[in-house]
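quick q for whoever's on today - can somebody do inverse folding on this one?? i tried earlier but teh output was garbage lol. tokens:
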């Protein structure tokens, strides 16, 4: 009897506690569910766990969800440099994979640049270039130069100086400065360390002494007009043979006088001319070692089997019309001496592949220009 009484007494209290615990548990579950749901939503928009932590901590979940996928916002929320006041500007800036992007964006906003200008700045340089640029005072002709696709942030001052001097339009100015036309030939050249088939070698870009192509192949003896073996890369030799066969169908015989020349070959050539004609001649007509395109093994000096002065041969006329179909371009044309830095060489052809050769032919530009517009990194 006593026991029963006790039970009856405890039951309602116990029920109440259970009910409260139950409600708390359900509430917690609901909250947890909402939390997980929000995280998943942000995650599916491409935000990282670290960014999501901060987005939620700063109560910006709805704002970020409204913006949708945005790499710059993700970077901002990941960064210790995040500034609340800049949030809406971050959302408008085009992201680049740069370590200090948020810090640099803050600095550029502080200097008074618009978000569209900041997107341009970020897209035209490396992390280091942008970091340097963000330290300087606001510049005046930013969009004029940087809106050119191949403009480089680090060259900004040179663009301004060159245009001041030469009065060229912005596009030409950017192109010519990128080609180092504001520097003397052979002075302070770029040393080429990464080599591929598109390499650009000219009076401002030098190959190192130890650069030797690893796929050299000899031209057939009957294709060479000189008494020594002539070599080029495998692809160039194959392309020449294809071109030679096509010319042969029209009764013409193409040959080669020269192909790959090593750094040391070029040194010897320079010495021979130096002894015979003196320094002045060498400076004007002989490429210094490392500056000869022949070291790439992708250039050939073409000859006619029957006429010694190539420019007077039918082979020359045929090459002018057809070389591009086989991937070759006349590298130093007469009308482009100011750009290439070389007097016209009717015999010197560079292999660039069919697609690029066609573009260069149709647009009447040099390889120097093509490289700067489309291949330079
Ligand atoms: Zn040559």
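ok took a stab at it. sequence:
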């Amino acid at each position: 009897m006593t026991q029963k009484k006790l039970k009856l007494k405890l039951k309602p209290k116990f029920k109440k506690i259970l009910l409260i615990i139950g409600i708390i548990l359900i509430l917690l579950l609901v909250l947890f569910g909402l939390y997980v749901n929000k995280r998943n939503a942000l995650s599916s928009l491409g935000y990282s766990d670290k960014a999501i932590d901060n987005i939620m901590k700063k109560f910006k979940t709805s704002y970020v969800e409204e913006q949708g996928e945005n790499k710059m916002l993700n970077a901002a929320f990941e960064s210790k440099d995040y500034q609340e006041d800049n949030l809406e500007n971050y959302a408008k800036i085009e992201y680049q994979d740069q370590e200090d992007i948020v810090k640099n964006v803050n600095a550029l906003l502080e200097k008074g640049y618009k978000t569209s200008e900041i997107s341009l700045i970020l897209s035209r340089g490396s992390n280091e270039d942008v970091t340097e640029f963000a330290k300087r005072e606001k510049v005046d002709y930013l969009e004029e130069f940087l809106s050119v696709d191949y403009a480089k942030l680090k060259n900004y001052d040179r663009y301004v100086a060159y245009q001041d001097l030469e009065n060229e339009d912005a596009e030409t100015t950017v192109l010519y400065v990128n080609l180092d036309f504001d520097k003397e030939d052979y002075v302070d050249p770029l040393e080429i360390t990464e080599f591929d088939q598109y390499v650009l070698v000219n009076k401002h870009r030098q190959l190192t002494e130890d650069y030797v192509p690893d796929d050299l192949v000899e031209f057939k003896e009957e294709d060479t007009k000189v008494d020594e073996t002539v070599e080029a890369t495998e692809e160039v030799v194959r392309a020449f043979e294809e071109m030679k066969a096509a010319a042969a169908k029209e009764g013409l015989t193409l040959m080669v006088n020269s192909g790959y020349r090593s750094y040391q070959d070029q040194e010897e050539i320079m010495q021979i001319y130096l002894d015979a004609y003196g320094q002045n001649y060498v400076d004007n007509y002989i490429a210094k070692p490392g500056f000869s395109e022949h070291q790439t093994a992708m250039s050939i000096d073409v000859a006619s089997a029957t006429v010694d002065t190539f420019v007077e041969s039918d082979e020359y006329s045929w090459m002018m019309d057809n070389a591009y179909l086989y991937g070759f371009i006349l590298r130093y044309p007469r009308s482009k001496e100011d750009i290439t830095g070389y007097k016209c060489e009717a015999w010197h052809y560079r292999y660039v592949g069919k697609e690029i050769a066609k573009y260069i032919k149709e647009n009447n530009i040099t390889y120097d220009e093509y490289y700067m517009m489309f291949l330079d990194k």
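fwiw The mean pLDDT is 93. also The first helix runs from residue 2 to 44. so keep that in mind when u check it
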